[in-house]
Amino acid sequence: MNKWILILVALTAIAQAASEGPLSPTAATDEGEWTSETNVFASDDARASDPGTTSHILRAYTFGFAIPAGATINGFLASIEGFGVEPNPERREIEVALGTSGYTPTGSWKLDTLSFDPSEIYQDLGSSSDLWGGTWSATDVNSAEFSVLVRQAADGTIGVNRVDHIRVTITYTPAGSTVPSRRRIEIQRLLDGG
Predict the structure, then answer these.
(1) Checking CA distances to 162, which of 16, 25, 75, 84 falls within 20 to 30 Å?
(2) What is the pLDDT of residues 144-156, one digit of tens each?
(3) Domain segments of the chain: what residues?
(4) What is the C-alpha radius of gyration for the chain, rounded to an integer number of angstroms?
């Protein structure tokens, strides 16, 4: 019986998720009023800044992911380090999305509130099982064009915000890491004495 339990455990220790990151971008651009956008590459107190007059997008990309070909992407955790200079929380709101190129998100935007100056902390968005409303492949996330997009929340209460660092962790399941369910049923039947 112990031999069969060991076989079952060995064959059903499947779909163990792997992760890569957190990785930081090595390229950044903006579509309007952000300044010093390349300051988001590291947590070093040098910050990208939005003057708070409009809701332009800061795009951070070229993360250097190397997810194995054929892997299933399970989720993304994006962390934004920064703060807002306005005491009103609504004026410190940002929206964050992921994209495969340019300033167009793949999926949906997430809303969060930056901490108040001078406190600067990472705001974590997403999780190891959150696909941000998009459909992703290893090719998508390994591309130099895979992006994190950040903008002031477009709610009419835009404030002055600073972003120090952007980083991303991707959770995935390698291709071929599952045991066919028929084989698991056969092993279970043997364990049950059938």
Answers:
(1) 75
(2) 999 999 998 866 5
(3) 1-15+177-194, 17-176
(4) 21
